[in-house]
């Protein structure tokens, strides 16, 4: 491979962790992100490390989709999977990533068709609760 066409070097593991931690802090606030990591036990620390490095460091930093789009996809997927606890967290992250209340509603309406009525009803209830807590409803 010629010097001008070199493949980009992979980020060092600590760099990826730092990138992931910054995304978590941007989306969930310093307290919210750091609380998860500080509360980790010997048993759960590998999970928190993986979430920070792989989920937020690697995947959320891929260039083809912006954070707003990733947040909307995440809300739809969590609705489809019925993961209401994670949805609570990611509604807050979506707002931080620039997703409007109206866009969240449309994501949930779209999910109603593809994930089913019960999943969407649960997600509307969860999201309404979070928006009220945030002073947006």
Short description:
By secondary structure, the chain is an all-alpha fold.
* Helix residue percentage: over 70%
Assigned CATH superfamily of the largest domain = AhpD-like
Largest sheet: none
Q: Which structural class matches the secondary elements?
A: mainly alpha
Number of domains: 2
Number of helices: 6
Distance between the termini: 56 Å
Q: Quick one: how many beta strands?
A: 0
Rg from C-alpha positions?
17 Å
General form = globular
Overall residue-averaged pLDDT value: 92
Briefly note the CATH topology name of the largest domain. Answer: AhpD-like
CATH class of the largest domain: Mainly Alpha
How much strand content do the residues show?
A: under 5%
Order of helices and strands: HHHHHH
Q: In terms of per-residue confidence, which ranges show pLDDT below 50 for 5 or more consecutive residues?
A: 1-8
CATH architecture of the largest domain: Up-down Bundle
Short key terms for the protein model shown above:
mainly alpha, 0% strand
